[in-house]
């Protein structure tokens, strides 16, 4: 144990280190600003004003430098956050400070290592049992940008160490949007964050086990370690709703990554612009995996037979070419169509393949006749011959998404053909409406149909996609994401127990298949960082009734409190509970069944630090104090019950509601509590 004066001297030395790091950050910022100005400035040369980045010997280089420096400058601006949060001393005597970004001195020597650098791994992974050559680990306490203290762990002692700084960080009151956890990432989380880029990772995790945090830090880690590949291909984060996205939106920028696109699956398909709403039954059919087969048939079913296109064995296809006439036989054409059907990935490419085969057949005959190969102008002419076009239109008609949608929704005979053996007649009848006024699910179908017609541009695919709350995605939504993943990898995060959509997944293997990934590493997180043990114990009573086979959370937190208030005057009781909750620091979340939430919102309007959330929208959020109002009503929520989980959706909403509290939970009820909450 160092004496007080030694500890003070060490703290002062660290404050000096921090000040030095700040000065060098400023110097790095100044240097970057200078580079930016050199390339992006409005340079007036010979009276000519140059455009943005249009300077230097190579315009493209100038443009690239001008752009490259913009996020770097932003990343280097002074923020209210300490520049390092940890330090390690290695066995060989070397030591490193670790922070959110790399900082170097005037010689290029590192003052602070980026938490994502390979060397930083030891900071997160070293333990009493496996020191990873680390002799000592220091964690800093800080308030905003100010270092307030530190705590040392002597790993040479080989003893487990309980970090007060980690405990404080986990238990601190929540005052706003989600924060990064770079300072306190735990070994099992770090192990997931640093999986190599090609790994498709699927993380099942109980509430508050840090899935969202892991996903976001993994995105930042990948961008840092696979910069070249991922800067170009891009990283996408898909979240369940806009409220959730705004809650998490600050994390990646704090980690220095502002280029990641964060969207809901609705935004990905433009479904947020939907102008009509499906009945529950119609939505169920439209989100079902079988719809992919229907869409496939609705497109490829247009391919006809050569005989039906009017080609006879005697005549074949006659192609007039000036004074010549080429004849392609029935067998030749049948083979061309069969090959195109077999070897082309999209319908549109298939038509072109048949057209090319026709030109090829005619060319061979022309070569035999004239002894030389005709040029490309000739080929274009052949393609335009009316008989060729008529044949193609009969055997492989031109299509676009709109036409197929219109036929599928508006032409009963066509729909019967497209759905026969895939959907029941009743189900098929639900596919109707006006494609011009689409529902959200119609836009999924449009996206699916389009995929059979033509390939997406490579630029529309992402190098890595992080998908949060993935248990709630329907097969058709998964397929939309899969089409934007291409050869890229995914990190899939979720909790089957929190699945509340009618199509919520009951197995991760199936969900990953819908996401188009068959080589997947599955893993489960069970250590809860959000919900104190006393509260998680209540939520865990509900878990066995949710119809899923997942491990319960074990909280690492022994603090927190749980209260039950039974009162026939529910609004008054809720208001009183909120009043009491406000006596403590932090955010208060009031969670109730959707309709009740509306009423409570009016009742509690204008109360600072209080947010009223409908149980169906509480997923992913957290509050210091949660007041759950009338659990029985939440359990009864009828809205989105699906066939596989009909009586469980409400219970799952309750499970979500009970697991949002960081410190305190008050359950307010007038009716008896649901029996599933009983011990
Ligand atoms: N290593 C950690 N250090 C500090 N805080 C952490 C750590 N891991 C997670 N947390 C915190 O625990 C809380 C829960 O994390 P997160 O929201 O990522 O969990 P989740 O598994 O996605 O939860 P849910 O399933 O309820 O959405 C967050 O406040 C997060 O910052």
UniProtKB/TrEMBL annotation:
InterPro entries (alphabetical): DNA_helicase_UvrD/REP (IPR000212), P-loop_NTPase (IPR027417), UvrD-like_ATP-bd (IPR014016)
Ranges where the UvrD-like helicase ATP-binding domain occurs: 184-532
Binding site for ATP: 205-212
Keyword set includes Cell membrane: no
Key words of the record: ATP-binding, Helicase, Hydrolase, Nucleotide-binding
GO biological process, one term: recombinational repair
A matching Pfam family: AAA_19
Gene3D superfamilies xrefs: P-loop containing nucleotide triphosphate hydrolases (3.40.50.300)
GO CC terms of this entry: cytosol
Gene Ontology MF term list: 3'-5' DNA helicase activity; ATP binding; DNA binding; hydrolase activity
Name of the protein: DNA helicase IV
Organism: Glycomyces harbinensis
